[in-house]
């Protein structure tokens, strides 16, 4: 190990060592961050770092030449969908893109298990985004080929959390000892659900800032507390911004609200502006999975602390690593 072994303190793991990596991910589904320990992360990030350098040096490889990815998206996506396509193409593979399920047999009422069993006849790996929690796990029950969860409703978004962690490592050089503040819609935001679970493998302080109605789910907070993770909840960012090392901002998830009036009341509750950032550390890392609405002003984009555009680029390398690993080619 090169990159990640230097930056992830594997001794800080709350999980026992025991990983053997040759082919460890081959043929495996990626459904939840709960399936990873720190040794897995170090390995994935080493591979991602290698791809980062290879993309810079040679652009396109032929590692996955002859392999096909089915990109099956039942919900809108820009970054996740296109970065998986780019990842597969950079590795020399090809893609069946199904971004508009309404033009597929899904619109005729085909079930998810049948759609998945169809696509795996033609593809070697399936990336799935679906509005229902547990959909990726359901698809995996029926699939012989690897399923990669690209977001299952308000459940998890494991590949986003992996790229978020890779971003923190790239930007900060370490995870242990950081104070990470998650801001916005912590109830419906699947990215923060996965990221909090992943950060729980390290010695971090997690601060949640949200309106009362959009707090981090109690089961998740309880599960992390039981593992000894240091967590606190606030409603005002000012209370914690000066102590924050990584500020992870999220969009209020309009599509998840049953009551649109409630959304209207909450949608502009936080807004990061240059003025707000005056109270932040000079070396703050400001992240957002994107898309952003009003929660981060565009005037912030030129601030060197704004890492969200770099974050989406890191996603390409992490997704290249995941594809190569599950196909046994890393
Ligand atoms: C996120 C998602 O889909 O959960 N976007 C992404 O994958 N980068 C965040 C969001 O939609 O707010």
TrEMBL record:
Q: Which residues form the Aspartate/ornithine carbamoyltransferase Asp/Orn-binding domain?
A: 176-325
Enzyme Commission number: 2.1.3.2
Where does the secretion signal sit in this chain?
none
Q: Which residues bind L-aspartate?
A: 108, 190, 251
Keyword Transferase, does the record have it?
Answer: yes
Pathway(s) served? Pyrimidine metabolism; UMP biosynthesis via de novo pathway; (S)-dihydroorotate from bicarbonate: step 2/3
Q: Which residues cross the membrane?
A: none
Cite a single GO BP annotation. 'de novo' pyrimidine nucleobase biosynthetic process
* Keyword tags: Pyrimidine biosynthesis, Transferase
Q: Which residues form the Aspartate/ornithine carbamoyltransferase carbamoyl-P binding domain?
A: 28-169
Reactions mediated catalytically: carbamoyl phosphate + L-aspartate = N-carbamoyl-L-aspartate + phosphate + H(+)
Record-level Gene Ontology MF annotations:
amino acid binding; aspartate carbamoyltransferase activity
- Residues recorded as binding carbamoyl phosphate, renumbered to this chain, are 79-80, 129, 157, 160, 290-291
Give one Pfam hit by family name: OTCace_N
| Annotated family | Belongs to the aspartate/ornithine carbamoyltransferase superfamily. ATCase family.
Quaternary assembly: Heterododecamer (2C3:3R2) of six catalytic PyrB chains organized as two trimers (C3), and six regulatory PyrI chains organized as three dimers (R2).
Function comment: Catalyzes the condensation of carbamoyl phosphate and aspartate to form carbamoyl aspartate and inorganic phosphate, the committed step in the de novo pyrimidine nucleotide biosynthesis pathway.
The record ties this protein, via NCBIfam families, to: asp_carb_tr, PRK00856.1
Q: Which HAMAP family match?
A: Asp_carb_tr
| Name recorded for this polypeptide | Aspartate carbamoyltransferase
Record the organism: Candidatus Thermofonsia Clade 1 bacterium
């Amino acid at each position: 190990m090169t990159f990640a072994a230097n930056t992830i303190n594997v001794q800080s793991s709350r999980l026992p060592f025991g990983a053997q990596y040759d082919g460890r991910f081959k043929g495996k589904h990626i459904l939840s961050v709960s399936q990873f320990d720190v040794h897995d992360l170090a390995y994935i990030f080493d591979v991602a770092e290698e791809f980062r350098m290879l993309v810079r040096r040679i652009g396109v490889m032929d590692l996955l030449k002859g392999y096909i990815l089915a990109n099956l998206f039942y919900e809108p996506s820009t970054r996740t969908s296109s970065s998986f396509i780019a990842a597969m193409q950079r590795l020399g593979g090809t893609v069946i893109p199904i971004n508009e399920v309404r033009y597929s047999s899904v619109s005729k009422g085909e079930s998810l298990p049948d759609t998945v069993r169809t696509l795996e006849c033609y593809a070697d790996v399936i990336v799935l985004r679906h509005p229902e929690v547990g959909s990726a796990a359901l698809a995996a029950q029926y699939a012989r080929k690897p399923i990669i969860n690209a977001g299952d409703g308000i459940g998890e978004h494991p590949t986003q959390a992996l790229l978020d962690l890779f971003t923190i490592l790239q930007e900060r050089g370490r995870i242990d000892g950081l104070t990470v503040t998650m801001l916005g819609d912590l109830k419906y935001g699947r990215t923060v659900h996965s990221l909090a679970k992943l950060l729980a493998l390290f010695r971090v302080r997690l601060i949640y800032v949200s309106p009362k109605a959009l707090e981090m789910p109690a089961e998740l907070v309880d599960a992390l507390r039981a593992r000894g993770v240091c967590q606190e909840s606030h409603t005002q960012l000012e209370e914690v911004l000066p102590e924050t090392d990584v500020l992870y901002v999220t969009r209020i998830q309009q599509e998840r609200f049953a009551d649109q009036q409630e959304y209207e009341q909450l949608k502009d509750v936080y807004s990061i502006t240059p003025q707000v950032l005056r109270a932040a550390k000079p070396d703050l890392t400001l992240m957002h999975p994107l898309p952003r609405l009003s929660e981060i002003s565009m005037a912030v984009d030129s601030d060197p602390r704004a890492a969200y555009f770099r974050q989406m680029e890191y996603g390409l390398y992490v997704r290249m690593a995941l594809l190569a690993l599950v196909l046994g080619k890393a």
